[in-house]
Amino acid sequence: MAEPLLKEKLRARRRAMNITAQSDINNEAVSSVDDTLTQNLAEHLEEVESEEDGNRLRSLMESRREASKRKLDAEEQEESQANVGDSEEYVDDILSTPRTPLPSRGPSRGPASPRTDTESRSSTPFGKATPRSTLRSRLQAKIQKNKMTGTSTSEEFKPRTRRLRDRMQLSTRFDETVKTESLIKETQLLERIESKLKWKQAAEKARQETGQPTETDCFDFFTKQYEDVEIVEPKPAEPVEPPHPPEEPDAVAEEPQEPSPDTEQPDTIEQQATETPPPTATEGGQAVPEQQKLLIEDLVPKELDYRLYDVYAAEYGGYQNQVDKENLNYFIPSMLPSDISKKVEDSARPRYLEDEGFYVGRKPEIGLQNKNILENRLLRQPDNGRGWFGADGEIEILPDPIKQVATKPWVEAVEEVDPSIETVYVKAYEYLVEGKYLQGSEENELQVDIGTVIYHHHALMSREHVMASNLSQCYDEYIQKRHKNYVNFYIDKLAALRRAVATILSSHDESLSTEVAASVRETRVHDFMSEIRRTSRQLNEAESSERDLMRRIIEEWREIKAVRDVQGFTNTSLKLTVKREEVNQQQDMQRWEDEVENQVEEKRDEYEISVIKPYQESLRKYQSQLQDWKKNRAKIKQQRKKLQRGSKENLLDSTNTETDEEITIAENVDKPQKPEKPEAFDVERVRVEIKNTLLEHRRNPGEPKLSLELAHTASVSTNATVPATESMRRKAMQKTSIVLKLLLNGKEVFQTEAKNLTSDFKLHFGSIFRIRITQWPESLKVQFLEAGLVMKTLLSEVYLTVPDTNVHSGNVQLTACNFTSERVEVFDHEAVGSNTPFKLHPTDTAPTSCNTRGQLISSVSWGLDENGKVLAPKGLTQVGADPLSVVNPMKTVDPVSAIGADRIQDPESLSKWVQDSRLDPNDPENAAFIPFMSGDQEGQGFLYAPDYFRLEQLQEEFNFLSDEEFERLNRLRLLELRDKEVAEFRNMTLIPSQEHEIMDSAFTVYERRLKEKKSLQLPTDQRPETATMSAHRLEVLRYRQLVKDAVLHRFYTARHHYTLQDMVHEQQVPDISTLGASVAKAFEPRRPLKPVKKDRKKATAQSLTQGSVNILVNIVRGYNLPVRVATHATAQEPTNTGRRFGGVESMIHLGSAPTAKTFEVNPFVAISFQDQVITTSVSEGRNPSWNEELKIPFAAPNNDFSSGSLQAVDDVIFVHLFDRTIEEASAQHEDDDPTLIVHRIQDHWLGTWKLPFSTVYHQGKVEGTFKLKVPPVLLGYSKDVQQTTDPSGQLDQQFAQQTSGTFLSLFITLDPILKPAEAPRPKFESQENETTLKMCGLFMEECTKKFPNRNVKATVVDLKGEAVLITRYVHPIQPPPELTEGSDPQSLSTAERVARYVSLIPFESDNVAYAGICDLWSTCDQFVHMLSGDEEEHAVLLLNFFLALGKKAYLLLGNAVPEGSTAYVLTVNEATRERTFWNASTGRYYDHKDNFSPLQSIGALVNDQNIWFNLQTLEKPSRTRFNLLNTSDWKPFFSSKFPNPGTLPTVQPDILHYSPADRAFVSGLTDQIERTLKERIASWRPRHVTRWNRSSNAILGQILRVLEATAARRTAGDSNQESELLNQLGDVRFTGFPMDMPYISVEQVVSAVRSTEVHKIVDPNVEFSLAVYIHPYPASVLAVWVYVAAIVNRRRHNL
Amino acid sequence: MAEVHIIGQLVGASEFPEHSLFCKWGIHAGGAWKLIAGLKEGQTQVDNPENEEFAYWSHPIDVHYAAKGLQGWPRIHVQVWRQDSLGRSELYGYGFVHVPTSPGTHKIECVTWRPIGTMQEELTQFFVGGCPQLKNADLIYSGADRYKLRTTAMGKVHLKLNLIFRNFDKYGVEC
């Protein structure tokens, strides 16, 4: 309602309605009808009021009003515009058509009703004074008011009616037709109207008499009210309103007007009046317009077939008329300039600011006409366009700079856009997760220039070619040397140095001879002298090497000549010419002599400085000392005399006591030694020496200067003149052509044309290729293809480096890169072939062999576009790391790139240019160079940043707290570390909310680790403790840390890489099979006869808490345990004691009946894990049976049972076997009850078996019979087999004979089973070509399909995280020479030694080392360097050693207990058909027939050529056939379908460098370990005295040495040395054993000793003995031997 | 040390001319602010609503900041991208809002805009997609002059943030 437009429309509409109404009124006696209506309404109202107290009515009326309003609004919107005019016309139409309204009824009823009406009306308003029934009263009041005031409404109305009436008189030409058509009817109608009018007039008169309102007034009343209500509604009060309660009557009063249109037609009302109650809200709304329409139709009685419309012709007013009218209404602004005086405000003179010197910007261009039109139009504004014009009378076009509210006209950029808001149009691009693609890719261009290929060796070379290539290589070197001209350089340098020395020495006298100057001069001379010596040595070397080279070239040349002579033709065009430059003999000699003399002089000087001077110095010192000494002597003598006199005062005198002391001190000082006089300088000898060296190294005097020149001038013999074999070679050469293929990211991008081999084996391609790249260039590979007649064969490949972005085609240089091919080529003609042995010279005894090799001279660069811009990808960093920085070059914005000079190579030269060119700093065009200019003022280039850079001003001032305080906040630090997933904090939950609740100790572990890491990075000499670490080991640790960090980082990021399956869990829709299965379940037998083993449920990490996980160990039984021997009884019989200490085999072979009395054993098993020990009960006998289940609680690190942290658990489950002895102990006190027998329980360690927790975790269970690790010498025990007669004993014996060793059957599992982590399977990058990778995938798929449990690998992941074909790991490597020298490399003992060496390299599981993610294979050099690795590294190293020793060996992938999937080495002895499996990490080996070998299944065999997968149904090693050629047993990877390309170079190095053992370090370490152990053992026995038996230490040490010597050798003969040594100890009871282990750290040794529990012996008489021996092997591999023994000397204690 | 913990979500986007939108978002805070935990930037999935004018992402935001000063109050900046039927992405709008300075739940609407290129670029965009992008995306939230930049309004990004403030009162800041 509030909208004025709507109001306007409403008003118009209403006006139209008024008119229609009035016309009706004019035509008929509407007033009466009106009255009827009002009466009806009033009556109705009264009824309603009486009934319902008006409330309902009110609401009713209101709703009706609302509805009608709404309707009205809607209608208005439709027809608003035309309505005013239309309605007029409409009225016209109605009026002009002679209407015949109600011929019969009208007159009869019309007059009647008004009368009644008037009566009722006159009575009601005044009779009834109720406030509500005010309709009539208000009507009257209104009318009266109208009359009194003569308001505008009636005023307005009159002219209109008049006009209408006037128009009635008008006639159109169409009237005629109408008239003629219904003339008669019309006349009839007119008559009626006349009569009506009469009635009307009469009624009017009557009304005037009675004071009743006329119908016009009535209508006025309605319409006026209507308007008032609707339009003037917002006005505060209606003047007409009587002082009733404001709202209610208003509403009531207004309502009746609403339906007023209804009432306009008497007929309708008449018809409806009786039956129509006030229409409902909705009806009422619709009723208004409908009835309006009805109005017209109903106007016409049906009997008169009257048409409601007429047809008129189009009106035409004439053009001139139109123009005149338009002129009247339109304003067309002039295009001519307007009068300036009008535009300028009051002061009629315009000001021109520009003339007054103000800055006036350039105004944007606007057409003059347009401007004038605009101005003229503005001037027509009511305010004459004030404010639009400036002081100069021009219209304001530019924005006012000081205007408060900014308006933003778009100004087309005149100057350049600010780079910071520059936009760049980016095409819609596909978003790739890999970020492999470049953005804006089309502008990146790589240029690859393939220049020349030079073969240094080629299969088709003849012998002469080979030599020639050698020669030319030597010559190249020679030329290079010559070019650098070292000789002359050194000669000049020497001369200059000598001159310098001479000048210094000559200026000696003149210069001020102060002490300082002298010393300075001395040091300078000294420096020069040493420089001279060095230069002269360098000169010697340079000259002699040059001479050597020349000699070699000449020799080669001679050989070539000889070959040419022999074969009778020439193949190469090489020709060597030796140029000889004669020298002046005498002069040369003279110079040479001078040189000799010079050198002699220098030697002498040196002698002076280095020998004589120190001598003199020391002499001087000596003399002064001697003086002192003498003085002292004298003094002392004096003092003595005084003392002898013994005067009391003197004694009391304090000074004297002092001197006394002095005397004693002085007496102690020895007489100083006189320094020895050095040898005199022997000039002759030195001279001879110098002459010799000169003769040896330098050009001899008088010898002519030689220079060589190699030319390609010799003519090659024509084909006709050469023998058949040679011509065949040449033909083959002509047939051969080489094609180079370039592969970008593994995709071929182009191929060069084929070039035929030329006789000089140089191929010039000289082709430049441009590659437009869309992907990041990851690799650029050139393949050498040899095009034969039929097909192309791949010779070799070489990788080109992708250049930096600043390398473009303008500045790139050709570089050479070497390539080789290992392809074997043999020819039957003259060509020497490749990779095959041939004899270069017929006289050579040993054939040589060359691989095809050569150089590719090429260049790779980024292209340049026509503007010289480098077409390199922007920012060679990977995109995608930061989602917001996809297009964010601003990060790298610097002033240089801001000026658009993209990638300026040399900013320094640019700044120089800026300075030189004297750019005007005020010129805005030079703004970009300002930094360069200002740099000039400060005397430094712009490259140097200013001293400060304010990023956040006043930051510090407003900070809450300082950085230091910030750092100290532990809570935030804790939160941060947890967020970064730092290992120590990764799984912390519930960090306290208050600072003070966090202990400082929370960080100690972390900080210690940081410190350790930091100390590793320190250089060696600053390291705090180096006692237990050799330099090499530190290096190793650092290297390992680096590798570990890198690998961890890689896998950490891989772990955060989620696939769709990780994020979206979609439950599988049950299909018919699963439904069927669940249905079938209902019918399953409840207790099936053959139950199926169900998998135990795997517990998820969330449901686990501390203590809910246990390790279950079921110890079944043991076999073949050692048996106690009474030591003291056998000690006297040295002949038999040997058995006790010897190797196991010797025992069995000896088999002699034991004379010693053996005791049984009482063994029990102790499981220790995570500092908890649980034992079984004690059993009996050699083959005890326990059948006990032990439960050990498992504690996860940080209480976190997630797979990630469990994988990193490196705890080990130790299974120790002990023997429990109960001894009678002597009573502590003699006076105790003698009948009291005191027993002492002692546990003796028999052996250990270790199982890493990770194995149990990954495999779920470990089950089987395992061999214990038993010390080689177990004092007091014998592994001897008792000759028994009972059958079970015999069985045992057989068993023991077969296996030799102590075994334990057990079963270990977790309860509940923990879910092992799935190894992430990120797609590893690989250097392998795609077909190989594809084949690997296929091979693996086929293999796992057939035997899913067999261990097979085709590719493995190296430390770089790249997939590498496994065969590349196999490559012979020479073992350290110390291990092999002096023995037959084929012999078993050598192999054992090598295996022992490998097993001594510490073992560390990859899962633990790299937080349990995957199996990484390091190469042998990495392995030896890191000194840690797991099974496969050990196996590969051992295999490679074996291959180098000439054994036939394979890498065996299989499953073994306890380690699970593992790698062994298989050696095959062809002669004896013996196959041996070597466990490289323990050094043990097993025959393939051995049923007890830990190897359980064989998955695959690998050598350097192929991989064979075991297809046999039986996988036990003892039942496997080893004929690898049988493809039904063994499936090869490289088969006839996919042959080995032969171009798979190994990843292993050819030679391993073994650093020699560091003896000093080893001895230091030995001491340290010994000391630590002694301290620890004492500390473990806090309640007992720990005595050390020193005498036995040495003996034990010797035993250890012997043991180490024989450790590796199981085959070696038994030696009695140990027993002999032990005998020296005398009559002792002895418990102890030697242990050996690879050295990892001191702590490891300590814990190993502790686990034996020797220290638990509580015998008060016990003495301990400890010996440590470390055997150093090359490459810092150390074997640590520890012998711990508890000795009870029986004699001493009378036992 | 005052702390701000922002927990909430990028609810979605509305009133963009086309569907299939995704959003790259980031939180930028001044030098006095230190990220303690959480990711301060990310990217949502593409949502292509079939029957609604609202692309829902419901992308979680959970960031913990510590502040040693008030300067550089964190602000969230977004880039709305559209993925067309060919799987190509084009920029659809930049926008940023400050993180509210009172604790509690806040529903935030971030209005977005995108740069208009030249006539030719607009034509290209109409037919083959793509969009002029800021060379320097920092401009979204930095106070640099950008009055010469021609932009057009795009839709709104809706955020719902729950803010927890801690210890601001210790330093005399009332939130």
Question: What does this protein look like?
Answer:
The complex is a heterodimer of chains A (about 1700) and B (about 180). With about 1700 residues, chain A is α+β, with helices and mostly antiparallel strands. The longest helix of chain A is centred in the middle third of the chain and has 61 residues. In chain A, about 30% of the residues are buried. The longest helix of chain B is centred in the C-terminal third of the chain and has 10 residues. Chain B has one domain: C2 domain (Immunoglobulin-like), CATH 2.60.40.150. A 5-stranded antiparallel β-sheet of chain B has the order 3-5-1-10-8, with no helix packed on it. Chain B is mostly beta strands and about 180 residues long. Classes of the chains: A alpha+beta (about 1700), B mainly beta (about 180). At the A-B interface, strand 1, strand 2, helix 30 and helix 31 of A face strand 3, strand 4, strand 5, strand 6 and strand 7 of B.
